[in-house]
Amino acid sequence: MQLFTAMDKIDDHILHELAHDGRISNLDLAERVGLSPSACLRRVAALERTGVIAGYRAVLNRTALGVGFTAYVTVGLNTHTKASQEAFERAMSRAPEVVECHNITGAVEYLLRVEAADLTAYKSFHTDVLGTLPQVHAITSYVVMGSPKDERA
Questions:
Q1: pLDDT at position 3 over 80
Q2: Residue 99 binned pLDDT confidence (cut-offs 50, 70, 90)
Q3: Which residues pair with 138 in a beta bridge?
Q4: Which of 12, 30, 50, 65 would give a disulfide with 37, using CB separation of 3.0 to 4.6 Å?
Q5: Domains in the chain, start-ordered, CATH in brackets?
Q6: Which ranges of 21-152 does DSSP label H, i.e. alpha helix?
Q7: Is the pTM of this model over 0.70?
């Protein structure tokens, strides 16, 4: 993959439109950004080829999928070794409730976004998954009460 450096306002506009509607037709996208369809397709292909566009995703309705509970969870490890981090990350990759896992700086090592059906399901994850990992030292949960802005795919 080559490094893409020649971004301009049209590329920014293309990215903005695709971020809001990844299924937009090339014809509609070209019209919105002021290009011919062939020029627009070439630019999108270049953005994909260079890795600026890494993929396309569907925006899911979590409530319709039975997810009624979301929490951000910080996790501190008891040892700061590569083996401890790798073991924790493997466990999180196997946990379907964990939709995001970030290794962060600060007082703790990880920030998780956890989605579950309800509080009871979250408690089960907290106790039966996080609570059983030998490398976990501290867990703090921040329950999401509402999301006035959420632009994730």
A1: no
A2: very high
A3: 76
A4: 30
A5: 1-59 (1.10.10.10), 69-143 (3.30.70.920)
A6: 26-33, 37-49, 82-94, 119-128
A7: yes
